[in-house]
Amino acid sequence: MSDKIRISDVAALAGVSTATVSRALAAPGRVGKETREKVLKAVHATGYQVNAAARDLRQRRARSILILAPNLSNTFFSRIFAAIQEEASDAGLTVQISDSRIGREKLATLGHDGRADGIILLDGEIDPELVNSWRLPVIQLCEWNPAYHAPSLAIDNAAAAGLAVRHLADLGHRNLLHIAGPAGNILAQTRLAGFQDAAQAAGVAAAVLPGDFTMESGAGAAHQWAASTNRPTGVFCASDECALGFISDVMRLGFDVPGQVSVVGFDDIEFADRFNPALTTVHQPRATLGRDGARQLIKMLAGGVTDPVLSQVVPAHLVTRVSTGKAPTV
Amino acid sequence: MSDKIRISDVAALAGVSTATVSRALAAPGRVGKETREKVLKAVHATGYQVNAAARDLRQRRARSILILAPNLSNTFFSRIFAAIQEEASDAGLTVQISDSRIGREKLATLGHDGRADGIILLDGEIDPELVNSWRLPVIQLCEWNPAYHAPSLAIDNAAAAGLAVRHLADLGHRNLLHIAGPAGNILAQTRLAGFQDAAQAAGVAAAVLPGDFTMESGAGAAHQWAASTNRPTGVFCASDECALGFISDVMRLGFDVPGQVSVVGFDDIEFADRFNPALTTVHQPRATLGRDGARQLIKMLAGGVTDPVLSQVVPAHLVTRVSTGKAPTV
DNA sequence: CTGAAAGCGCTTACAG
DNA sequence: CTGAAAGCGCTTACAG
């Protein structure tokens, strides 16, 4: 019962070879019944557990997947991580997490050091050369970069922005504002383009204010909005956090939502529903995305070159709540 | 430049032994200057990167820590994870995450399979026998269980509850309500006891409603509160989510916060500040807790038996915002 | 069905 | 300063 019990200890106790112990544990059918029982008894008596590090080295696999995200403290990822972990655990895989902003050198080793079998990438702003140098299956989730040689799974961001715009237009809003995400971000770009295209198609005015997905940027935009002449009555924010920041400060400035301004968010985070007023927003099925992303990666690990994993776009939908209403009559 | 380059490939190219390559990389000072340069050139030419799995097996360490949390989708953990990862990354350690509700068997192997060097435990409700069977350094963070043979790091939950009660009492509230956390949870128990003790000391009425930290439980309590006769004017919730749920539904029922009822939360999550009304709450320094917890574990890994890691209680403080105000005059 | 031996890819005493 | 050899703890062809 002391510290480390190795397979040789079990073998000695059972009076068999280590090969037999190994087989009895991994492929019971390939060992005689009596032998198997002897081995199992010895395993029990010693409390033996195989050393995963040794097994994995021998089998040249890590039994582990790595999640790489641009900011681990972003609560948006929580549910995605949970779903990935659940799926991985069911497949006998361990989950590692790392911030993708750890620096070029560390990032480069990740794909080569034999500690992960595959990577789920939630960041589209890493140097493509780096990402493409990894000799591991990679799947892009939520965010993507066309230069990466890896399949992606994400909702239809452009169409989602269109839904938001049409929802506002249908409520009679003719003067819209988009609070954008960071310029370099593919999600921000796609949502912005979707906003502009849909606004043009609907024949409504479409202004844009810069932002970066954070509550602070939404709050800042609220003050710019309040200070502007001919204030837009419909605001589409690039993220829920941004929307909550906007609403929060707009209300503190004495405006009514949705009485004077309607606000649409993006993501449908946990608090969207409980906020006052409850937030109309684009739903991102994060649990589903995480689960499906993990499944696809696991499929890739199984080596299904015969069954190549394709990029997928998940249809988006809008959840209508209280933060949007009829355009105020002038 | 093909797939897997091993140390022997580098050794062959440089015309030295694998031992020398290993030393040139890990302890450059113990190798001649010329040899070192030859090796480095060969490393560069081949793009060699050491196989961490092999190195770790040989050195009998995993260079990895495991975070175990009761529910990965709980956004409360995000910032803690980020802080741990940062600290671990600086120390050259990988971070694994796992839900601690994965089942007894998987949980048992975690502490024995050689894939982690140490564990950060955010769950106090695992069977102590299981936890104590792990042959790894463990540190308890935020939550704890006195039966675990492991140091813990957490804020002073009882004192924190006392701060909330005294804050409400100072505002003139004589009739308080606590919406508790799940009965089996040590945090819930400690906060409840702190609430009751402080209320008694302050000589104010102290009712309790069951809850489970979720927004739903807070929302449910709101309806019970509204339906009660002689409604408490000061409410202390066991978590921010619970508080937001409570406020949200109480306002939808037409009550004013803090005009008719003051509400205090617990945790100081990101949204506490942006909520309408902004939430008065007990601050949990999650980034600091994560960082310090990781550092302590890393110290334990270094084998500082000479410098035993003690359990620590971090002083709590209350952040006063808008959700609390003077008790309504009857 | 079982065992002896090789090998996964490294590092590290041990010699020299 | 450098190399040959052993060994981390397993699994897996290969024989029998």
Q: If strands are numbered along the chain, what order do they take across the biggest sheet of chain A?
A: 2-1-3-4-5-11
Low-confidence stretches of chain A: none
SSE topology string of chain A: HHHHEHEHEHEEHEHEHEHEEHEE
Tell me about the biggest sheet of chain A? 6 strands, parallel
How many individual β-strands of chain A? Answer: 12
Strand content of chain A: 15-25%
Total number of helical segments of chain A? 12
* Termini gap of chain A: 81 Å
Q: So what's the oligomer here?
A: homodimer
Query: Could you tell me which chain pair has the largest interface and how many residues each side has?
Result: A-B, 54 and 54 residues
Radius of gyration of chain A: 26 Å
- SS class of chain A: alpha/beta
Instruction: Kindly state the percentage of residues in helix of chain A.
Output: 40-55%
Instruction: State the shape of chain A.
Output: elongated
- The pLDDT mean of chain A sits at 93
Write structural notes for this entry.
2 copies of one chain form a homodimer. Chain A is of the alpha/beta class and 330 residues long. Chain A has helices spanning 7-14, 18-26, 33-46, 52-59, 78-90, 104-110, 128-133, 157-170, 186-202, 215-227, 240-252, 286-301, and strands at 64-69, 94-99, 118-121, 138-141, 152-155, 175-179, 205-209, 234-237, 262-267, 280-283, 312-314, 317-319. In chain A, helix 1 (7-14) packs across helix 3 and helix 10 (215-227) crosses helix 11 (240-252). The radius of gyration of chain A is 26 Å and the shape is elongated. The model of chain A has no long low-confidence stretch (mean pLDDT 93). Chain A binds a DNA duplex (16 and 16 nucleotides) through residues 4, 6-8, 16-20, 22-23, 26, 30-32, 35, 50-60, 114.
